[in-house]
Structure formats: structure tokens, C-alpha cells
Amino acid sequence: MSDEAEFHADRTQEFYLPAVVPAVPPQHGGAEVIEVAAFRGETKFEREVIEKIASAAARSVPGVAELGGDVARFFNSVLDKIGLDKVGDSTRGVWAKVDGADVEITVILVISAGEVVADVTAAVRTVVIEAVERYGLHVSECTVKVDDIRLAEH
């Protein structure tokens, strides 16, 4: 028997029990149909929904001047000039990968000059994770990339 398979009282033992509630089909119509209806199917989130939630949360952090990398910001400025200034703004600078209830998020941002990068990125990570997890999802990773710094205009 290997050392890994033995029980050791001095070590922490971890057990994973799935928290699954099996759907119970009703025997007949009536009130029972209402009780088990919540278990008949699943809820899925599209990537764009998560990106909108994360984008709105990231924009609310003081010190975040703008979201998106150089290319995204360039195309946004072109769209602004032709009058389509709101196209793509809701998800720009945020990328999400959704796998069931697990989500990985990447936020690309421009930080305001004079801000402490570690403080701003930590705040962005915190508010993004809290905002997305309010919807019943689990954020397994939230990466914040600082793409540029916005200098004060004189």
C-alpha cells in the first residue's frame, strides 16, 4: 500500500462529495409539477453576458481610465468618428471563457497616471469576481492586464 493511500491522522484529509439534487419526476400533475420544475434543465450563460457584467464592474473602479488593448481602442475611436460610438463598448477589453458554472476572465485596461497599479488591479479583480459570482457562477481565474497608462492632459 502506498503512502498516499493510507490514512494519516496527522494530515488533513479532503473528501469531495458532489452536491447534486436528482430530479424527481412527478407521478401525476398538480402541485408536484411546480416543485420539481426547477430541476428540469440547466441554466447556461453566454460568454458575452459574462463579459458585459465584468466590463461594467471593471469600469466602476477608480483609476481605470479605459478598457481594451491598443487595437480595440483604435477601432473604438474610428467608430466614434463615424457616429457608432456605442458599438462594442459593453464588452471591449474583457474576455471570458465559460465552462458550465466555471468562468475564467481576462480584463485588459488602461490605468490613469499616478495610480498604484497593484491597488487598481486588485480592486478590479475583486469587483469583477464579486459581480460575476452574484449570478451564481464561480470565477476560477481573473487576470488583469495593464495595456497602457493615460497621462493627464494639459
Outline the fold blueprint.
Layout: H1 31-36, H2 47-59, E1 64-67, H3 70-81, E2 94-99, E3 102-112, H4 117-133, E4 138-150
Parallel strand pairs: 3-4
Antiparallel strand pairs: 1-3, 2-3
Helix pairs in contact: 2-4
Describe it.
With 154 residues, this protein is α+β, with helices and mostly antiparallel strands. The chain has helices spanning 31-36, 47-59, 70-81, 117-133; strands at residues 64-67, 94-99, 102-112, 138-150. Helix content is 31%, strand content 22%. α2 crosses α4. The longest helix is centred in the C-terminal third of the chain and has 17 residues, at 117-133. It is elongated and about 55 Å long. 21% of the residues are buried.
Write down the overall mean pLDDT.
77
The ordered string of helix (H) and strand (E) elements is HHEHEEHE
Helix content: 25-40%
User: Helix- and strand-based class?
Assistant: alpha+beta
Strand content: 15-25%
If helices are DSSP runs of H or I spanning 4 or more residues, what is the number of helices?
Answer: 4
